[in-house]
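subagent[fold] <- orchestrator: predict structure for attached chain, return tokens only, no commentary.
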Amino acid sequence: MDSINFSLSIQQVQFFKTFGFLNFPGLMLDRIEEITEAFETIWTERGGGHNGKPHEGTARSCIVPFIDQSKNLSSLIDDPRILAIATTLLGEDFNYMGSDGNYYVGDTGWHSDGWHSVGKPQHLKFAFYLDPIKKNSGALRVIPGSHLDGDDYATTLQDNVRNSLENWGVNGPEIPATSLETQPGDLICFNHNTKHAAFGGSSKRRMFTINLCQRYPADQINDLRDYMAGGARFWIDRAYGDIMINTASKKRMKHLVQVLENEEELKYHSMLARKKMKKPANG
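subagent[fold] -> orchestrator:
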């Protein structure tokens, strides 16, 4: 695949707007070896699991920020394919909003990654799965159209999906959805609002994400700061890791600057989180 000339079609843009996700089989296959090696190196350097402890397979392990720990993974922000998708869906001045690396365990119930209303900057997530995953072994499932703020269908899901057995008589895996089975090298992109889940996964399912959003207008900067404060649960004092910043070109810095200009309160919120929590959040 010609990564330099990659672009989204009009049909793909409309698909994303309508259904809230896109799937790109094999899009990152040419980089999957270096990506996987960097993934494993970070975990080894960080003790193998959550909060510097070995991964025991009983609960999800998580590192935030993640790609910031590696020069190779940080460069994904500069990859022409990532840039083409991001700039088309979010604009030329999109923000990099952090990343997380994970060893997933078992099921992940239905949820959205926050909720961003019409008129607010929209957020999206790139998901990289590093193991072959099928429908019943942890593949990402999405509910098409569940991202549409103000839509009756999406509102019904928002209000009821967590109690699906009580409301509709079906358990989580039985909810109608699209399963995005993946091979290493595939790339999935979805709107943060989109309801998603996974069922039947192993105890060490490798996956990391990159989160991006539209640039916040001046009159919504407090919303940006509130969103960033949510990262305190991971016990981070800064939004980005040093490698992400120190290896950034001028082009990359365009996608970092708004967050850097508004991260001053994160350290304070992280201090409060450390007082309330026994260990950093794993999701």
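orchestrator: received. Logging for downstream: The longest helix spans residues 32-45. The radius of gyration is 18 Å.
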